[in-house]
Amino acid sequence: MIQLKNSAQISAMAEAGRITGEALLVAREHVREGISTKELDTVIREYIEKCGAKPSFLGYGGFPGSACISINDEVIHGIPSKNRILREGDIVKVDVGAFYKGFHGDSARTIPVGNVSEEALKLIEVTRNSFFEGVAAVKAGNRMGDVGSSIQSCVESAGFSVVRQYIGHGIGRDLHESPDVPNFGTAGRGVRLCAGMAIAIEPMVNVGSESVYVLPDGWTVKTKDTSLSAHYENTVVLTSEGVLITTLVDKEW
Ligand code: MG
Ligand code: MG
């Protein structure tokens, strides 16, 4: 069942979202060659806790980190490790959730480490653009397929592919709620959107094939063809006044 949020709940979601977005800004400040993904995870956790919130991912399904940190051909769900060191030319996906006043925020960015390839920069830009194409379709009366097809056509017209195996989701008191939010689909089909819906829209985009697999660690998702992958996510609430992107703290990012 889809849990619609009232205005008081949307205010609480805005606060959880702001903390989530700020934690990503902290992560961005620390991304540099030589830092381990574990160190990055620690600064994120410390920031969230300093705000009086809790990291949504820590312990979720047994996940050992506060953030999912995935490098290059890792798509999502990378486990922070002191043995994973960022190198110049890498792209690193940082996915963060914060739980505050009973509600979650969920957001991800793909961050270049120093100078990266033209292809990597284009991938990051297209992935971000596809999110905003999806958001443009978030209107009362539209269907979820309008959101997914907008994301898909943006990605595919750039020559990249959309991951099918993992999708966005409703969000609120629980990190993952109904409805499903696929990054692909058919316009005019699917769940009808209405005020009070809160969803995490999160395109995962590969340079090569859409095929992915899970590493033996049980978490890390990688591209099968080892091509680069990017991720961009925000928590989006459809209110009676329009769209509120709770986790978008830096409007340019
Ligand atoms: Mg996320
Ligand atoms: Mg999510």
Describe the structure.
The chain is of the alpha+beta class. The protein has one domain (7-245): Creatine Amidinohydrolase (Alpha-Beta Complex), CATH 3.90.230.10. Helices cover 28% and strands 26% of the residues. The protein has helices at residues 7-30, 37-50, 118-136, 144-157, and strands spanning 54-55, 67-71, 74-76, 91-100, 103-112, 161-162, 168-170, 177-181, 198-201, 204-206, 212-214, 221-223, 229-231, 234-239, 242-245. The chain has a 5-stranded antiparallel sheet with strand order 8-7-9-14-15. Strands 1, 2, 4 and 5 form a 4-stranded antiparallel sheet that branches. Helix 1 (7-30) packs antiparallel against helix 2 (37-50) and helix 3 runs antiparallel to helix 4 (144-157). It starts with 6 loop residues before the first helix and ends in an 8-residue tail after the last strand. The relative contact order is 0.19. One magnesium ion (MG) binds next to strand 5. One magnesium ion binds next to strand 5.
